UniProtKB/TrEMBL annotation:
Subcellular localization: Cell membrane
Pfam families referenced in this protein's UniProt entry, alphabetically: CstA (PF02554)
UniProt keyword Cell membrane, yes or no: yes
Annotated source species: Planococcus wigleyi
Protein name: Carbon starvation protein A
Domain of life the protein comes from: Bacteria
Length: 578
């Protein structure tokens, strides 16, 4: 099949989903009110609660949820063939992700901008809230570890990307000051910042002394490094420490100083990146050389596909962003459809081009199978295959290979970094909420909660467990990241369903994807975490088993509690607001 035709079909379905299905959900199910006073106005504090233009907020929301996961997950899942991956990305985005992201945003806006974890108290009781908060805490901890691991390794593999990525920080601070202190418009400064980044990328890809290659500074791949770790491990350690210092600062600053303007830059960067890749697709017009399905796969796609592709089809982390930061910045309730549903569609578009970049990379099926020889091999090959495939597409626009690979790696790192510091900020919120819950005043303090979040994330990503040794903690948690992510999405859909049920509204749009997602994820989680750990894994991970067992038990407990709430009749006195 021709890759252009595949992309056109997928994008057409996305357009139909936003134009018709999201409008139906907005008007008939959520019944958005343009006159409703949102938390951004009710609790405006200039730090977390900041009324924001919907285009700017969409940029923050989109880039916060569009990290490395919608690239990495689909690039791994093509191991089973391109058809299952494309179907799950397209249909999952329209009928599950869009409704989930949109719904958690509306639910939070109607409840003082509270997170879905806190809202569990009102909808399913105190015990359910505490269990849910702990699941969320574990998930964001894993997000921090996985994404820090990805960024550090990309900095090592693509040293030309370092300066362009870090130059974005002072540019974003300058934009934030110009917009919120000088009342300037954000569009032109952000475009200038994007141009500076890409000019820097072009120069750095051609000039070696602008490439921050820590491995070479340590004597090359065979260098001794520090503390007897070796040069590569030392470089990885240094990047993790630098990243943790950065996210500590970024997650404690007011959102307008760094988070919003940097995310707005990244929203342009994502649009430019998607434009380059899709235009490159038109000019190169490649054939799909990967198989439609892989009948010889060593492990079945059913149900593992639905946890391998989390972000890009549906992701519980999106609900944390919707209810954790985006709901506190929503100017009008009617903007929720644009920010929430269209944000999910944007990520679906990214996941679709990720699939296409990989399945058009190889000259023939034999080469594809040589790289994707097993599911385990696909986990190691996925990100590299995307960057190489995306570079090939970009070369269709006559962009030199070195420049193209640098720009693609910058895009991946920028989105991963955005997700990372948003996740650390969310983790700080949750730790503070648990401090309130258990009456531990010190945990309510911003810097105490942030220190715990950053310290735990650094410890986890640097954990020397498994065959890869030092710094393999983030990599080892990747299988569990998908399952925890999907379970969180299922629980969030369940909470929205209970809320709609209490209001006496049709909740089929949320309960049907919830049942599907819960069934597939619990099945996959039991298979991967318990059966594979106990019987099939050559080198079982205690870390993976312990985290997985805790999440599995907590989730079942929450589901049983929530089902009791769901079976109750509609409450005529329930307003849906707080």
């Amino acid at each position: 099949m021709n890759a252009i035709a595949l992309a056109a079909i997928g994008i057409f379905i996305f357009i139909l989903g936003y134009r018709f299905y999201s409008k139906f959900v907005a008007e008939k199910i959520f019944r958005l009110d343009p006159n409703y006073v949102t938390p951004a106005h009710r609790f405006k504090d200039g730090v977390d609660f900041v009324p924001t233009n919907k285009f700017v907020l969409w940029g923050h929301h989109f880039t916060s949820v569009a990290g490395a996961a919608p690239i990495l997950g689909p690039a791994i899942a093509v191991y089973w063939g391109w058809l299952p991956a494309v179907l799950w990305v397209v249909l999952g985005t329209v009928f599950a992700a869009g409704v989930h992201d949109f719904g958690t945003l509306v639910l939070s806006v109607r409840n003082k901008g509270q997170s879905v974890g806190t809202l569990a108290h009102r909808l399913i009781g105190q015990r359910g809230k505490v269990l849910f908060l702990f699941i969320i805490l574990i998930l964001v901890l894993m997000v921090n570890a996985v994404f820090a691991w990805v960024i550090a390794n990309l900095f090592i593999s693509y040293p030309a990307s370092v300066i362009p990525v870090f130059i974005q920080i002072p540019l974003a601070i300058w934009i934030g000051h110009a917009v919120y202190k000088k009342n300037k418009k954000m569009l032109v400064p952000s475009l200038i910042a994007l141009a500076v980044m890409y000019i820097t990328a072009v120069v750095a890809s051609q000039v070696s002394f602008l490439q921050i290659d820590l491995v070479q500074y340590m004597g090359g791949e065979d260098g001794a490094g520090l503390f007897g770790l070796g040069s590569i491990s030392t470089a990885f350690f240094i990047w993790i420490i630098i990243l943790m210092v950065y996210v500590y600062i970024a997650s404690t600053l007011p959102v307008w100083k760094l988070l919003q303007p940097r995310d707005f830059i990244n929203s342009h960067q994502l649009i430019v990146g998607l434009g380059i890749l899709y235009l490159g697709l038109l000019f190169t017009n490649p054939d799909i050389t990967a198989p439609i399905t892989n009948p010889d796969a060593d492990i079945s796609w059913f149900p593992l596909l639905f946890i391998t592709i989390a972000c890009g089809a549906i992701s519980g982390f999106h609900g944390l962003v919707s209810s954790g930061t985006s709901s506190k910045q929503l100017d009008k309730e009617t903007d929720a459809r644009f920010v929430g549903y269209l944000g999910a569609v944007g990520e679906g578009v990214l996941a679709l081009i990720s699939i296409i970049a990989v399945i058009t990379l190889f000259p023939d099926k034999e080469t594809f199978f040589a790289t994707y020889s097993s599911f385990q091999a696909s986990n190691g090959a996925g990100l590299g295959a995307f960057i190489e495939g995306a570079t090939n597409l970009a070369q269709g626009l006559l962009i030199p290979a070195e420049v193209a690979s640098t720009i693609v790696s910058i895009i991946v790192v920028s989105f991963a970094a955005t997700t990372l510091d948003t996740s650390v900020r969310l983790m700080r919120y949750i730790i503070s909420e648990l401090g309130v819950e258990y009456k531990i005043p010190s945990l309510e303090k911003k810097h105490v909660a942030t220190t715990i979040a950053v310290g735990a994330s650094a410890a986890l990503v640097l954990l020397p467990e498994g065959p890869n040794g030092f710094g393999s903690g983030g990599y080892l948690l990747w299988p569990l990241f998908g399952t925890a992510n999907q379970l969180l999405a299922g629980i969030s859909l369940l909470l929205i369903s209970i809320w709609l049920r209490k209001l006496g509204r049709n909740y089929m749009v949320t309960i049907i994807p919830m049942i599907f997602l819960m069934f597939m994820t619990l099945w996959a989680m039991f298979q991967q975490v318990f059966l594979q750990w106990a019987w099939y894994a050559d080198q079982p991970s205690t870390l993976l088993f312990v985290f997985g067992a805790i999440i599995f038990v907590f989730t079942l407990w929450i589901i049983l509690t929530a089902i009791q709430a769901l079976l109750k009749k509609a409450d005529p006195d329930f307003s849906g607001d707080e």
